[in-house]
Amino acid sequence: MRIVVDDLSGPEIAEFLAEHVREMRSITPPESTHALDLDGLRRPEVTFWSVLDGPELVGCGALKQLGGGHAELKSMRTSARRKRSGVASLLLAHIIAQARARGCTRLSLETGSAEFFRPARELYRKFGFEECGPFGEYRPDPHSTFMTRRLEGAG
User: Residue 155 falls within a domain, yes or no?
Assistant: First the structure.
């Protein structure tokens, strides 16, 4: 598998992300769905990666710079066929390393609180994330779980 910076111009990643947003909206009320659309992911403060296994798109994720050494993990997704195959762990380790290399000292995320998101929350805990309060522009929401971790050795 390889992880590549993606400019989000291809139809395959556009459909992969559209499916992500559709799935999130089917589980979580619209006002509690915080998935970024293509325009949101193309902003200069966001770096987006795709995970490819040969030619097959198997996952994606993004890092959004929030300022002050703080960044947010966004748009983590693994294709349905490849869940629990190591794609998300590989990508999360990559994004954490990239955040450190960019001088970030804290990495946070928002994920769902529903049972559907339990495997994601367990993955984040495995990588040292702990629950926290809302950060950035988020507000308390019973449908959201907020998590964060310090990044030692940043820089």
Answer: no
